User: What shape does this take?
Amino acid sequence: MNRCMRRLLRTLVSCYKTSFTPIALIAVTLAFPLMAVAAPLQTYLALGDSIAFGETDITPVSFGDQGYVRRYADWLSTQNGCRRPIVINLAIPGETSASFFTAVSPPGFAPHSTLASFNLNYQTNTAQSQHNLMLSYIASEQTAGHVISHVSFALGVNDLQGFITLYPDFFSLPSRQQQQLITAFAATLAKNYTRALTEIRVALPTAELLLLSYYNPNAIFGPADPLNQASMLFLDVHTSLLKQLAGPFGAQIVDIATPFQGHEARYTFIRSGGVHPNDRGYAVIAQQMIAVSSVSPAVFTAQLELMRGPAARMDSFDLRGTFTLGAASNGMNAVTEPVTMQMDTFCTTIPAGAFTQHKNGQVTFDGTLNTVALQVRISPSGGKSFTVQAEGNGADLTGIVNPVSMGLIIGDDTGSTIVTAEFQ
Assistant: This one.
């Protein structure tokens, strides 16, 4: 009997047991509740342009829970008892650091109200600025008693597009004039960034603030390409600015440029004339965000099989992976620490004390959490590395598609990865 058939039978048995609620199942459920105390309701606020909005080869009309914002929010659930935060994405395609305040598009761009209409958060008033709506949402969330725990901010690349429109002959100008224009460009960008970050920090002094850099999709065209040259110039200015501002504003820099280098064709639509990330590109950006948000990053690699069941909450998964502690780790103990597994929107936490310790160093969990029958094995494999095996039956894996963003958190050791799952 193959693994898929065994999982199907276990799923059917799990549903049978759930229907009749035997004493053993009651004991497991009572002994290992998923969440003894409700965690505070948190909010993730995303600000920026079309990349922050999640544009791909199309510009969606939505509230913006997509792209790296969706994947990062999914991961944030692992940090809060598997409760996904409220997502408020106010990003606007075509936004510049100036139009963020003025709601006026630069020359050559569509009207700001047209660009804002793609984001349904502006549907009652497409003429308002992202800045004003940000302040409005911050006030309303605080009034509601919600905690805006995380803010991501990514603006500037459209400033470059506006610059190119104004100075199409930039690279033919005398070097002194080029330097004057670059200095003025950098000063304007810095002024707008400083104003925005000041207001964010005043309103949200304890929120984790992520400043995202940019990638260069035009690198694929070679060093002689004018767009590549302009992009490289912008990246130097923008990255330098982030380094100057991160410390004073208590922010973390998310490096997007490095993982995209040499992978422009794989992570973006540049081959078909677009510059935005594809699904894998957005997954890579989210991984970079997760890395800087992790207290103790670990290296997590995995293979994943998913099987859709015949009805709701009858899906199954089979995970095989390795988990290696990072240099900052103070060690892990799955017996005394909670263990959280996340696959896109699916998240489950095995409470501290639920694992059984064996003589060979292996720890195991065999029980049911929130109707999902879980079998988990974590075994030492030498040094700071461990093998991980996990099977789940009776899960709801609706909406999970490739590439799948995965997370494994043991205590404060956090591993995340992107996998191409095998669907059965």
Q: What stands out?
A: The first strand starts at residue 42 and ends at 48.
